[in-house]
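Hi all, long-time lurker, first post. I run a small reading group and we've been trying to get comfortable going from sequence to structure in the token notation. Rather than ask abstract questions, I figured I'd post a concrete chain and ask someone more experienced to write out its structure so we can walk through it together at our next meeting. Sequence below, copied exactly:
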Amino acid sequence: QVQLVESGGGLVQPGGSLRLSCTASGSIFAINTMGWYRQAPGKERELVASITSGRSTNYADAVKGRFTISRDNARIAAYLQMNSLKPEDTAVYYCVYSQLRRDYWGQGTQVTVSS
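-- Answer (accepted) --
Happy to help. Here is the structure in token form:
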């Protein structure tokens, strides 16, 4: 089993920045992928960004150039730096950890972009 702890959500004005953190613990394998999904009210959950243990990254078109995902393999942690936030970025953000064809989800953290 893998446990995830997320932090960093909150309320920010349009154009502002937030940094989300996610730390994994438990039965960790060296080859894995960490990422962030988000779900806005009335919408389906969507991939925001992901990063492999080899540090290959993938971003949703809506966040390219504004969000940056990174990781610390020694700490089994992933970070999502979100800049130039827009009201449409408002959602619950979920950390996901994938290994051996299984996905583990965090509890979610609310990000609200509003003036």
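A couple of things your group might point at:
The chain has a mean pLDDT of 96.
Residues 35 and 41 are 20 Å apart (CA to CA).
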